[in-house]
Every structure is written in structure tokens, then in C-alpha cells.
């Protein structure tokens, strides 16, 4: 048993309970525009079942036969109709763990020679926001209360104070970036915020 414990020193630290979360990867695409370096965003197709017309980064669920970075690249190729050689991954960005059993692994990357293409089955349109704007603009931030609600079969008899136990509460920040006629909010704004914050902290 001691030998097994010692072997833990070689284990890569993971995220607790990740096997019970949906894991996705996204790319934060950086392009050259007339306004300098910019982040590229998608508007999801209005015909999609989940989150139609929402603003997002290219990305999606990690398949069993690929790693996180490969998933971000594959999804970008599928959604923006680009070649893998046009995608240059710089680094991973901050991992986002949500209160609703989702883990998102963002990757920062240059999208070279992008010609404005996209898959119309998944994407309604694309647009870009100058990095200078994001660096100089503080997003609006609002909070959603996160409350623990035990299920009907929760064993209250096994815990101190039973049904009177005071479960913790939390606050979940929701960010909003307003750019021209676009509203970037939710997970995409959170990923944007983390990316911009990390640049500012360098």
C-alpha cells in the first residue's frame, strides 16, 4: 500500500469528479485584422437545438479518441472550415469548472490567413473584437446565487442537525462585454475575461 501511495507523486493532478462532468475544449482564436490583433467569435446557427444564436468560441465535446488540445483544433476546423496548419496553439488558458457539471478547457491560438469562412450548419456568422478594446474595457459583472438543494433521498439522518443543516451558498459571476451590436456573455465572456486578465497580469 505504501508503494502505491508513493507512486501518486508521478500522477498528474486532475480535477475532482471530472468523470461526472461533460468535458469540452474551445479555441480562443487570435487573428490579424485592420484593427490589430483581435479575438474571433462565432454566432451559433439559429437552427441548432442548443443555444441557437448565442455567441461562442469554436469548440465542443472532447471525443474518446482525442486529447483536449486535439478537440479544440478539430472543432475549429469543422466550424470555421480552416486547415490544421493554419492553427498555431500558443498555450492552454484557465480551466473553467461550472456549477452545472461542465468543464471547459480553453486553448489560445493564432488563426493564420483566415478568410472569413464558416460552416453554415453550425455557425450563423463570425465577427472579431480588437484585443485593444478588450484590454481597455472592463466587462459588466452580475452574480447568480448558487444554492445546494439535496435530493429527496438525501440521508439527513447521517449529518449534524439533519434537515436543519446549513448548507453553504455561493455566488457565480456572469460577465458581459458589449461591442457594437453584439453582447458577449456567459461562459464565452468568462473565458474572454480570464484570457484578458492573464495578459494584464503579465
Automatic annotation (TrEMBL):
Single GO molecular function: metal ion binding
Key word Manganese present in the record? yes
Write down the CDD domains for this protein, in alphabetical order.
Answer: NUDIX_CoAse_Nudt7 (cd03426)
Q: Return the InterPro entries for the record.
A: CoAse, NUDIX_hydrolase-like_dom_sf, NUDIX_hydrolase_dom
The identity of this protein, by name, is NUDIX domain-containing protein
Please list the coiled coil stretches: none
In this chain the Nudix hydrolase domain maps to 21-154
Q: Could you tell me which Pfam families the record lists for this protein?
A: NUDIX
Amino acid at each position: 500500500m505504501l508503494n502505491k501511495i508513493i507512486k501518486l507523486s508521478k500522477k498528474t493532478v486532475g480535477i475532482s469528479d471530472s468523470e461526472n462532468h461533460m468535458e469540452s475544449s474551445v479555441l480562443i482564436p487570435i487573428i490579424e485584422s485592420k484593427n490589430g490583433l483581435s479575438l474571433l467569435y462565432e454566432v451559433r446557427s439559429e437552427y441548432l437545438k442548443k443555444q441557437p444564436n448565442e455567441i461562442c468560441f469554436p469548440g465542443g465535446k472532447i471525443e474518446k479518441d482525442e486529447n483536449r488540445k486535439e478537440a479544440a483544433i478539430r472543432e475549429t476546423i469543422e466550424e470555421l472550415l480552416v486547415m490544421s496548419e493554419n492553427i498555431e496553439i500558443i498555450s492552454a488558458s484557465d480551466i473553467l469548472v461550472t456549477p452545472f457539471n461542465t468543464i471547459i478547457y480553453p486553448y489560445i491560438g493564432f488563426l493564420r490567413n483566415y478568410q472569413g469562412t464558416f460552416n453554415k450548419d453550425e455557425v450563423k456568422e463570425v465577427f472579431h473584437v480588437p484585443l485593444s478594446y478588450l484590454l481597455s474595457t472592463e466587462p459588466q459583472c452580475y452574480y447568480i446565487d448558487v444554492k445546494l438543494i439535496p435530493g429527496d433521498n438525501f440521508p439527513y439522518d447521517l449529518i449534524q442537525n439533519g434537515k436543519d443543516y446549513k448548507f453553504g451558498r455561493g455566488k457565480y459571476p456572469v460577465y458581459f462585454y458589449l461591442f457594437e451590436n453584439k453582447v458577449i456573455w456567459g461562459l464565452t465572456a468568462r473565458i474572454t475575461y480570464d484570457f484578458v486578465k492573464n495578459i494584464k497580469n503579465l
